[in-house]
Amino acid sequence: MEIDGSYGEGGGQILRTSIALSALLGEPVKITNIRKARPRPGLAQQHRVGIEALGRLSGAEVRGLEMGSQVVEFSPKGLTPGRYEIDIGTAGSISLLLQGLMLPAAFTKGRVEFSVTGGTDVKWSPTIDYLRNVLVPILGRMGYGAAIQVAKRGYYPKGGGRVVVSVEPVGALEAIRLVERGSFRSVRGISHSLNLPGHIVERQGRAAREALTGYPCEIALEASRDHSRGTGITLWAEYEKTVLGASALGEVGKPAERVGEEAAQRLLREVLGPGVLDIYMGDQILPYLAVAQGRSEVLLREMTNHTRSNIYVVERLLGVEFEVREEGGGYRVAVEGLGFKPS
User: Fold this and answer.
1) How does residue 190 score in pLDDT terms, banded at 50, 70 and 90?
2) pTM for the whole thing?
């Protein structure tokens, strides 16, 4: 099967989803035009490491792994449980790398553990706290079992964070219906930093709470010393049936108050919007819905380019068909899953 890597948003997500589904199915895939429209087209270090890790997990033969390569051929043989050490080698996103690994890892015949070194909280990526507190709980409703432990954080440009993820084997994922949130429970969050004055995390947390006036809010403060330097905050709103998340990162010259308020305003857009899943979860959950048993339906606030791109890849590789229709200011997405089970 051949996938056009320039389709839609044309970034690394098409590559990650294609290789992950190839590893899951045990079917070869060829991705062309990888990141063709980007300022630096082709594979970057983070993409190479992610493909290598999926290759180890699935015993794959891989061609085209050179830096800048715009064509990759991936031929897997079979998924193998065990412990895998992965070093991105830069501040590249651990969360994005895990996006590719987490689905096929659940369909091995035993527990899989990944110890990954890289960036835990970096631009253009879900934070590791988002994965821990939004992605994993929602996938848990489908029968997916994983635990994420942050051993230490890593920020741009030094990276060096380390995350340990254990994934339990699953016989099959269950379909999910998330078109209502259920009752609101609370907003929670983590304001964190390394090698910065302790008042930074306090000011970020305070600004977020003030912006979220009217919502019960509990924000943990985490400030410590290590080789990396940076700060950020992740927030999530817990409901009876779902979780909505948002985050913001600090930068040189960016006041702590602005970081906290930025994360809170992003969360409020989700809370006050029509979605039962936030805009980040919308594209990440699609491959899981497609392999689950039965018909799944979810309500998204917005159809992003990432979501549309992932629909393209999943439909091409799995042969499913997503139904998308506007509803109440949002988008209802439905699919009849394959009921995939490990052979």
Assistant:
1) very high
2) 0.96
The confidence score (pLDDT) of residue 311 equals 96
Q: Considering the chain, what is the average pLDDT of its residues?
A: 95
Residues belonging to the active site: 306
Is there a contact between 168 and 182 (Cβ–Cβ < 8 Å)? no
Domain locations along the chain: 81-170, 184-271
Give pLDDT, residue 10: 77
Check: CATH 3.40.50.1110 for 184-271? no
Task: State how far the Cα of 287 lies from the Cα of 21, in Å rounded to an integer.
Answer: 8
Q: What is d(CA 299, CA 302) in angstroms, rounded to the nearest whole number?
A: 9
Topology given in CATH for the domain delimited by 81-170: UDP-n-acetylglucosamine1-carboxyvinyl-transferase; Chain (3.65.10)
In the predicted structure, residue 237 carries a pLDDT above the cut 80: yes
Task: Identify each DSSP E strand in the chain by its residue range.
Answer: 2-4, 29-32, 61-63, 72-75, 82-87, 112-118, 146-152, 161-167, 177-178, 184-194, 217-224, 230-239, 243-249, 295-300, 323-327, 330-336
DSSP 96-163: HHHHHHHHHHTTSSS-EEEEEEEBSS-TTS--HHHIIIIIHHHHHTTT--EEEEEEE--BTTTB-EEE
Q: Among all chains, which residue has been given the structure tokens 């919502």? A: 215
